[in-house]
Amino acid sequence: MKEFRRIIQDKRFLIVIILILVVNGILEYSEMKPNEEGEAYTVSLYGENYSEKFREIREKLEKEYSDLPVEEKVIRLQGINDEYSNKKSEFWQEAIQQWDGISEMPSIQDYDNTLTEEERIYYSAVGGMLGDYSYILNYNKKIQNILERADKQMKDTGIFEENSFAGRNIVKTKEDFEKIVNVKPQVERQSSFEHLFNYNISDFIMITAVLAVVIIVLDERKKGLWEFTYSMPGGRLRLAVSRIFAMGAAAFITAVLVYIQNIIIAGSMGEGYGDLTIPIQSVWMCEKVVLTVSVWQYLLLILFWKVLVLTLVGLFFMGLSLLLKGYMKVFFIGAIALIAEYMAYDGIDIHSRYSMLKYINIFAWFDSEWCMRNYLNLNIFGRPVSLYTAMCAAVALLLLISAVFVVMSGRVRPFAIRAGRLRKLLDKLVVKLKLYSHENMLITELYKQIIVQKMWIIMALAIIIGAGFYDSEEVGYDYKGTLYQRYMEMLTGSVTEEKINYLENELFVWQEKYDEQERIIENGSELTNVEMEIAKSKKEQYGISIECVNELIGELDRLNKEKEKGADVKIINMVSYRKLLGEQSEEQNTRDAMIVLTLAALVASIALCSENTMNVRGFIKSTKNGRGKFMGCKYAVLFIEELIIFIPVILSTILTVNTKYKITWLNASIKSLDFAADFPVDVSIATAMALEYIIMFLILYIVMVFVMHITSRMKNITAALVLSMAVAVMPAAFYYIGFYGIAPFTVLNELVVSKWMF
To answer: What does the alpha-carbon distance between residue 352 and residue 354 come to, in Å, rounded to a whole number?
Structure first.
C-alpha cells in the first residue's frame, strides 16, 4: 500500500495529469469548435443565434406532433419535406432551361434565397426531425431484414455450409441480432454523441500518464534501492503486486478524468445528452450494437475498457523497465512497438489478408467504443468471433500475461549484482566516449540538457508537431476568389499604365452586364419566379465582379503612388501573404506561438534547476571565472534549444502556405502588400518576414531566460516544471481557448508578431 501511495501521490504524476487535462481540453475544444467559414455560411443562411431558433422551432413541432404515433409523424414530416424538395427541383429545372451557358451556372441553393430565414430554419428543422423519426421507424425493420436475410442464406446451399466459417458466421449473426430485435429506440439528441464518439485523440494522450508511473518506479535505481529491495525476503513479489495495483489505479484515475472532461466538453458544445436511460441504439451511430444496454451503461463500458487497455500498456512498459537497464532502451522498444501497432491500425485495409492485425490491435482497443458499435466477426481458427468479444478476450489474456511479466521481471537480479567483466569493460568504454568528459563547457552543458535531462524528447516533439501540421491539400475558391486568381495570372509583376487601363475596361464590361440585369429586374413583371431569381443571381455575380475589379484598380493606384515615391513595388497575389502574415494568419500563428511557448517553457524550467538537484552550484561559483562562463554557456544552450524547437514549427507553416498558395516576389518591397502599406521602413518582403521571426524568436528567448531565472533557486525539477507552466503556459492556454480577459498576463499576443507588426 505504501508503494501504491508513493506512486499515486508523486508530484510528477499529478503534474502529468494536469498537463493531460489542459492539452486534451485545448485539442478537443479546437477540434469541436465550428469552422469559421462554415459558421459564416450558416449565419448567412439562418441568421445570428440560429441554434436557439432551431431549438424553438423543433420544440414547437415536437409539441404539435406529441400525440401522434411515429408512423404519422414521419408521414406528415415527409409531406412537408417533399413539398420543399419539389419546389427546389422545379426551380433547378427552370434555372437550367434559362441558363445562357456562358455565365456561372446557377446553384441549386439559390432557391433558398427566395425564402426568409424563418422558412429556411423551419425546413431544416423538419428535415432533422424527419431523419430522427425515420431512423426510429425503420430501426426494427432493418434488424428484421438482417434476420430474414440470414434465414434466406441458411436455406441457400450454395452459401450456407454448416461447418464452414461463412455458415457459422450466418448463424452467429442471426443469434446476435435476435438479442436486439425487440429494442425500442427513442428520439434523442445526437450531436453531442457524435462529438464524443468521433474524438479519440485523448486515447493516445493518456499513455503519457502510465509512462510517468514507469519513470517514478525507476526512481529506485537512482536512489540505489533496487539491490536493497531485491535482497528483502518476499519483498519482490509484494512490491510487484503493489505496483500492478498502482498502475491500474493510475490508469483508472487518468481515464476517468479525461473521459469525464470529454463528456462535459462534447455536451456543452453540442445539444447535451438528454435521457441516459434510453437504449443505446437510440444513437444512430450505435444502431448495430448487439448489447441490450442503456446509454449510461454503454458509456460506462467504454470507460471500463479504456482503463483496462491503458493498464495493459502501462504494465508492458513497467515489465520492460524492470527487465532492461536504462530509460532509453525501455522507451525505444516501447515506442517501436506502439508505432508498429499504429501503422497496422491505420494503414492496413479492411479487405487485406492482414486485416486481423488491424483489429487485434492496441489502438483499436483504445477506441473501445469503435469496437463495440462496429459489428464485425473475425475469423479465429475458422470460428466467427465478434470484434468486441475478441477485444474482451485478448485484453483480459494480455493483462494476465503482462501482470505475470511484471512479477517475473521484478525477480530478475539487479544489474549492479549481476554485472560481469564484460559489463565493467563496457562501462569504462562508455565513460571514455561520453561528451561530459570533454573540456568544452558549452558541449558539456548541451549534453547535460539534451541527453541527461532528456530534453531531446521535447525537441523531437517539436519536429513531430511541425511534420504533423504540414498540410498540402488543395484549396478551393469561391467566385470572387476564382476571379481574383484569374486576374492575378495576367497582372502579377510590374505596375504599368496598360494594366490599369485593362482593369478599367473590364470594369466597364462588368458594369454593363450589371445594368442589363438591373433593367430586367425592374421591368420583370412578366418574369416567372425562376427567371427573376436567375436575374438576381446574375446581378449579384456581376456585382461581385465589379467589387473585385474596383479593389484591384484601387490597389494598382496605391502601388503606382508607391512606385512614384521610389519603392520597388510589384503586383502580387495577396492570398499567400494574407494567410502567412495578414489578417487570415492570426489563428494559425497563434497556434504556432502557443506550441513553441509551451515547449520552450518546459525546456527552460530545468536549465538551472537541474544543477541544484545535483548540488553543484556552489562548486561552480567557487571556481575562477566559473560563474560568468557557466551562465554564458547556459544562455547559449537556451539559444540552441530554442532554435531546435522554433524552426520545425515555423517552417511547417511557411511550407504549408507556399505549397497551397505559392509565396512569390519575396524581393519586392514590403509596401507591395496592402496590409503593410504603412510599414515604417521600405525593405523587401523577405527582410520584413525575417524581422518578424527574429522578433518572435527574441521574445520567446526572453521568456525562456525569465523562466530559467525564476526556477533557478528550486531543487525539485517537478516543482520547477509546475511553476513554469503556471507562469508562462497556463495563462496563454486560457487566452487561446477564449478567455481574452487574461491577455495582460500572457505574452501570447506579443508572440504573434504579424498581428501587431503589419
So the answer is: 5
Cell of 208: 503519457
Q: Which residues, 6+ apart, have CB-to-CB distance to 193 below 8 Å?
A: 266, 270, 273, 283, 285
Partners of 669 in the β-ladder: 684
Q: Which amino acid is at 422?
A: L
Task: Between 58 and 684, name the one with better pLDDT.
Answer: 684
DSSP 669: B
Cα 401 from Cα 239, distance rounded (Å)? 17
- Measured from the Cβ of residue 295, the count of other Cβ atoms closer than 10 Å reads 21
Q: Could you give the CA distance from residue 74 to residue 386 in angstroms, rounded to a whole number?
A: 34
**CA quadruple 634, 640, 643, 644: dihedral, nearest 10:** -110
Q: Give the separation between CA 471 and CA 646, rounded to whole angstroms.
A: 18
Would you state the cell numbers that stand for residue 623, as one nine-digit string? Answer: 571556481
Helix %, strand %, coil % of the chain (to 5): 75, 0, 25
Q: What pLDDT score was predicted for residue 698?
A: 93
Nine cell digits for residue 334: 516501447
Burial of 583-613, coded b for 16+ CB within 10 Å and e otherwise, reads eebeebbbbbbbbbbbbbbbbbbbbbbbbbe
684 strand-pairing partners: 669
Question: Of 756, 725, 695, which Cα lies nearest the Cα of 19?
Answer: 725
| Short-list 295, 288, 306, CA closest to 272 | 295
For 738, phi then psi, to 5°, come to 125, 0
Q: Letter for the amino acid at 591?
A: R
Q: What is the C-alpha to C-alpha distance for residues 721 and 733, in angstroms, rounded to an integer?
A: 16
pLDDT in tens, 352-392: 777 777 788 888 888 788 888 888 888 777 778 888 888 88
Helical packing angle, 717-724 and 586-605, nearest 10°:
160
CB-CB contact of 684 with 676 (8 Å) = no
Nearest to 673 by CA among 592, 584, 752, 558: 558
pLDDT for 699: 92
SS3 of 11-76? HHHHHHHHHHHHHHHHHHHHHHCCCHHHHHHHHHHHCCCHHHHHHHHHHHHHHHCCCCCHHHHHHH
Q: How many CA atoms lie within 13 A of 456 on its CB side?
A: 8
- Is the separation of the CB atoms in 720 and 711 below 8 Å? yes
How is residue 511 written as a grid cell?
458594369
CA neighbor of 584 nearest in space, from 404, 758, 379: 758
Of 80-84, 348-352, 442-446, highest mean pLDDT: 80-84
Find the DSSP H helices in 411-522: 415-418, 421-433, 441-447, 456-469, 479-491, 497-522
Q: Are 751 and 643 in contact (CB under 8 A)?
A: no
Q: Decide: residue 677, CB within 10 A, 0-12 exposed, 13-18 middle, 19+ buried.
A: middle
Cα torsion angle, 652, 653, 657, 663, sign: negative
Report pLDDT digits (tens) over 27-71.
777 777 666 656 666 666 676 777 777 778 887 887 877 778 888
**Backbone φ and ψ of 566, nearest 5°:** 105, 5
Contact between residue 390 and residue 380 where contact means Cβ atoms under 8 Å apart: yes
The Cα–Cα gap between 165 and 384 comes to 7
Residue that the C-alpha cell 516576389 belongs to:
665
Q: Which three cell numbers stand for residue 463?
A: 519536429
pTM, to two decimals:
0.63
